[in-house]
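B., you asked whether I could sanity-check this one before it goes into the benchmark set. Here's the sequence:
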Amino acid sequence: MRNIFYPLILASCLAFPVMSQAQYVHIKVPLAIHDNQDRHAVLYFGVDSYATDCIDPALGEFELPSDQCDGSPICAYFTSLPSDTSQCLGNGLLLDLMAYVSPGQMNQYLVVFRTLDYPVTFSWPKNLKANYDSLKISDAVTGTAFLANMITAESLVVTNSSVQRMLISAYGPHGLLDAVEEKTSVPHTTVLAQNYPNPFNPSTSIEYTLGRRSYVTLRIYTIAGQTVSTLVDGELPPGHYRSAWRPGRLPSGVYFSQLTTSDGVFIKPMLYLR
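And here's what the prediction gave me:
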């Protein structure tokens, strides 16, 4: 089960209930996945007092297009648990926030990942004891072949190429943690940041860093996979970059920014409101 508690579904993503600071819990944990070629993908999971167990665009959750990997040499996303009969995560999410209703709740997150270059390393921040009573990651089939306590360890290496699903089991969430992608003067990895503002109108800013010189394309496409804009198409040195996108007469809806480099393909969802 995704959540052993069933909170009241919000009638509107804009009409949040009044909640004191002591009651509010927001945890957003980054999970990095690196393959043997140091290509990587980043997902985020956690809980939020305003979340539901399905997709909440107001909190930054957006369903991926049907071809989630789109030819990328490495990709990862959250999908619904087999026991979840609603399958309400659809094609998958890059951010999966569960509803917070009790300090004693148990949540599970199912990660699907694909790459041709094993071993694959999963890593996460230190000090998660401040936000969870128990937090474990394991292979989704046996639960024991690849297993790590995410409170005491910082990474897990998966060497078996037949393993393509991992299960995160989280118990006892509490406190506030909002992962922010750090920027340094000399970047070491390639990162596509979430656009800001989001949702947006009339324009938004898309930031990214390059860990090494690479041929780069930055494109915007619809949820159906149609390219609507190409913002960057050329070779760039390592560094920090920013591009602006103005949809103009395009309809409101979910769009995706796609950064393609020699390190892989990176995708972020965006919500445009006319």
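One thing to flag: The chain has no helices and 18 strands. Otherwise nothing jumped out at me.
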